[in-house]
Amino acid sequence: MTDTAAARPRFAPVAAFCLFDFANSAFTTIVVTFVFATYFTTGVASDPTTGGAQWSLAMSVAGIIIALLSPIAGAIADQTGQRKPWLLVLSVLCVIPTACLWYVRPTPADVPLALTLAVLSTVGFEMGMLFYNALLPTIATPATMGRISGWAWGVGYAGGLLSLALALFGLVQADPPPFGLDKSQAEHVRATALLVAGWFALFATPLFFFIKEPEPSGIPVSLAVRTGLKQLATSLRNARNHRNVFRFLIAGMIYSDAVSTIFALGGVYAGVIYGMKTEEIIVLGISLNLTAGLGAFLFGWVDDRMGSKTTISISLAALIVTSAVVIAADNKTTFWIAALAMSTFFGPVQAASRTMMARLAPPAMRGEMFGLFALSGKVTAFLGPALVGWVTFATGSYRLGMATTLILLAIGWLLLRSVREEEASEVNLNA
User: Which residues contact 80 (CB under 8 A, 6 or more apart)?
Assistant: First the structure.
């Protein structure tokens, strides 16, 4: 199947596409958000507040690296016509450092090792998502992109939920721990990194067999990079020719940073502010993934019927309100209720943004545009975590640090209002 999608998407490629989200969601939920990040801040770092700031700043370093590499990756995808080989390499780059997190002991001496591995695995994950997202138009028709993107996000949240449940009941809460794991050295928690690595490798595999790409162009990678970067530079200089796309990219750059920061640091926040233990944070993670998956599934239909912009706008407005309640909550019950409501809108924002980019991008420039999409999402990706880290260091309050995400959400929502979805989609899809 080529980028000009057939009348009806085939089941196997769509299932494989969704299953990849099922695979990699274990990384974001267990490593980045709910388990390992919490283990680092409360069990490895010298104290939780310092650990929260260190983890936030490490994520900002990963964001800078991704921002620098994304244009190159987009150039390779466009010029060579290949996404899957690079997705495979980057998936391995995520899986191996993730497995090596097993070696991070509960001592401040292992802080550098933990942060280095976290940065490497995050770069592999996020760069891989660029090539993964660029596969969407090859398996979906323009009329079904919204629901397939939403299905994938929903299946991804199911993957996060099931992997968290397995981590909780199979490792963290198991008494005695399996395989002779030593609780005094937090091996029952550290083993969740091995679970993630195996989960990712297993469930990502079908994508590489069932999604077909056009024949490669035969252009060498070095030439592809040079040509693609020249094309990117020309695109940036001629932004006025794609003004609507660039307005969306700028808006997405701001609100995606806020959403990613809230999602990535949510478990850390619960541990630092409410003193939640690993077991309770995993239960929180399971609950949030359940509501987030439900939101992604339901809003996939809203996306196709009402449009991506409307879906994103509604979700961002809801996120601003619910996130404010989460940050202001003075008790755990209020925090729980607001967090569950907030998570319902994570999936719709992310899924509808991917769909909107696929619809706005001219077919011949999809790789480049998804490169810009990834770049716009990552060029300031260091900003959200960095703001949280800097404000936390300056004030000694992680609550005030997280409050900076509300400003980014509001700015992104306001900028999105100037994007003309229908006109841009019509022009670009017929370009």
Answer: 216, 217, 219, 221, 224
In a domain, 2, yes or no: no
- Cβ contacts of 9 within 8 Å, gap of 6 or more: 139, 140, 141, 144, 148
At residue 188, what is the residue type?
H
On whether the CB atoms of residues 130 and 371 are closer than 8 A, the answer is yes
Structural domain boundaries enclosing 372: 11-429
What sign results for the dihedral spanned by CA atoms 321, 322, 324, 325? positive
Euclidean distance between CA atoms 265 and 405, whole angstroms: 11
Q: Is residue 6 part of a domain?
A: no
Of 90-104, 252-266, 275-289, 377-391, least confident by mean pLDDT is 377-391
What is the CA 412 to chain-centroid distance, rounded?
17
Contacts of 84 (CB under 8 A, 6+ apart): 131, 135, 207, 208, 211, 213
**Residue with the larger pLDDT of the pair 194 and 281:** 194
Q: What is the Cα–Cα distance from 413 to 255, expressed in whole angstroms?
A: 7
Place of tokens 């769509």: 14
What is the DSSP code (8-state) at residue 177? P
Highest mean pLDDT among 3-12, 42-51, 382-391: 42-51
Is residue 225 within 8 A of residue 77, CB to CB? The reply is no
Residue 5 lies in a domain: no
Three-state secondary structure along 273-314? HHCCCHHHHHHHHHHHHHHHHHHHHHHHHHHHHHCHHHHHHH
What count of residues does the chain have? 431
Domain CATH number, residue 224:
1.20.1250.20
pLDDT digits (tens, 9 = 90+) for 180-214: 899 999 999 999 999 999 999 999 999 999 888 76
Give residue 203's region: left, alpha or beta (phi > 0; psi -120 to 50): alpha
Angle at 9 between CA 8 and CA 13, to 5 degrees: 160
Which tokens belong to 320?
Answer: 């601003």
Domain assignment of residue 3, yes or no = no
The first and second tokens of residue 326, run together, are 């989460």
* 306 contact partners, CB below 8 Å, separation of at least 6: none
